Amino acid sequence: MFAVNRREFFALLGGAAAALPLRVALAAGILICPALARDDGRFNHLPVDLRDWFRSQKSPMTGEHCCDEADGTYVEEDIREGHYWVRWSTVWEWQRVPDEVIIHGPNRVGLPVVWWHYDHKGVRIRCFVPGGKT
């Protein structure tokens, strides 16, 4: 990985004014997540009620949908000092789950599930449904 400071980044884009359309496009991409979910048919075998459960999950922090079954990732979970920590196959470093994104409802799959994304600060957890650990 290489580091580029803000001034160099804007220069590469053609200046700060040229970066505005990029910012707008990134913001729009984040806001329309449910419409652009990665459902490529891999989860068609799931019962309809389970798919509906995935699709109905909302972030306690924002009230927005977490996305759907294609965006949820099964994770390994741990509890440290009263907080959930998770890791998964694409992000092997343990990530602390922000308390405000934990969904405290019944977990229909029984396994811990996280909905996550990358942003300029790194890995961000959008929603988390705990598994069997208490």
Spatial strand sequence of the major β-sheet:
1-5-6
Describe the main β-sheet briefly. 3 strands, antiparallel
What is the alpha-carbon Rg in Å? 17 Å
Q: What level of helicity do the residues show?
A: 10-25%
How far is the N terminus from the C terminus? Answer: 37 Å
The helix-and-strand class reads alpha+beta
The 3D shape can be described as: globular
The average pLDDT is 76
- Indicate the low-confidence ranges by residue numbers: 25-37
- Helix segment tally: 3
Counting DSSP E segments of at least 2 residues, the number of strands comes to 6
Tally of separate domains:
2
| Secondary-structure element order, N to C | HHHEEEEEE
Beta-strand proportion: 25-35%
SSE inventory with pairings:
Elements: H1 6-13, H2 16-31, H3 48-56, E1 72-74, E2 76-80, E3 83-88, E4 91-96, E5 113-119, E6 122-129
Antiparallel strand pairs: 1-5, 2-3, 3-4, 5-6
Report what the structure shows.
The chain has helices at 6-13, 16-31, 48-56; strands at 72-74, 76-80, 83-88, 91-96, 113-119, 122-129. It has 134 residues and is of the alpha+beta class. The protein has 2 domains: 1-31, no CATH class; 41-129, no CATH class. The strands form 2 sheets. It has a 3-stranded antiparallel β-sheet, with no helix packed on it. Strands 2-3-4 form a 3-stranded antiparallel β-sheet, with no helix packed on it. The N and C termini lie far apart (37 Å).
